[in-house]
Amino acid sequence: MTATTELQGIVLDLPDAEYRQAPGLSSTGVKHLLDSPARYQWEQTHRTDKRAFDLGHVVHAVILGAGLDVAVIDHPDYRTKAAREERDEARAEGHAPILRHEWEQVEVMAAAVREHPDAGPLLTGGEPEVSLFWDDPETGVRCKGRLDYWHCSGVVVDLKSTGRTADPRRIDRLSYDLGWHQQAAHYMAGVEWAMGERPRFIHVVLEVDAPHFVSVVELDDEYLADGAADVRLATDAYAHCLATDDWPAYPAGIHTIAPPNYAKRARALEIA
């Protein structure tokens, strides 16, 4: 077993449980900090188990050939006590539970990725589930990340499964809502720290619903710069909260809000 205090740079073959136990600010932590430091602190001690997370874990395990072990629950749904107990036992043992019919769905999803002319090659010839540890040069904050797929040539591939569209012409909203730019910037900073060169970061996006269309997208430089600015803000806030032991939630007061820009654009299109 690798001592977590000695983990540094790119680490291969580190079990998922050891990665999760290792200290460090992750990309998920960055997102929670940007909501509020109080959100980050709460999430550290409150585990959230959701079926959507289970499906995502299983998709990763099957397509990447690494990650959590899969436990197929041989029930049609979770309405019975026996099915729920099997699911909870699987989670407690560190497995990703999935119903039989969902498992069959995942196999079809995996085939869609492997057969895609761009996604398939991107997810071969490299290393899956690669751990990454580094110290932020400006604050000294310990950071970490878990790369879905790493090519030593300097390419990071991130696998996303979504219940929304994977259409590259319409995926900008989804990517922003879920903070893909923040995750990419966080991981790219870690790889650059470890390797001395800035990597490419590519998303393979897979639709959960049949017929399971796949797309491959890459965020442009402006988008990545926005993500890096967010990561900088979150990392600085984290360092301050650690130093002061103060983890504030949302600011007090009555706040005036305006409609988002996409709503304004939608109205303009309707009028036109």
Report what the structure shows.
With about 270 residues, the chain is α/β, with parallel strands linked by helices. The chain has one domain: Lambda Exonuclease, Chain A. About 45% of the residues lie in helices and about 20% in strands. The strands form two sheets. It has a six-stranded mixed beta sheet, sandwiched between helices. Strands 2-3 form a two-stranded parallel ribbon. The longest helix has 24 residues. The mean pLDDT is about 90.
Précis, in short:
The chain is about 45% helix and about 20% strand. By secondary structure, it is an alpha/beta fold.
> Which strand order spans the largest sheet, edge to edge or round the barrel?
1-4-5-6-7-8
Mean pLDDT: 91
CATH architecture: Alpha-Beta Complex
CATH fold naming: Lambda Exonuclease, Chain A
Shape assignment: globular
Query: Could you spell the SSE succession in H and E letters?
Result: EHHHHEHEHHEEEHHEEHH
- Our estimate of the beta-strand percent is 15-25%
Rg over CA atoms: 20 Å
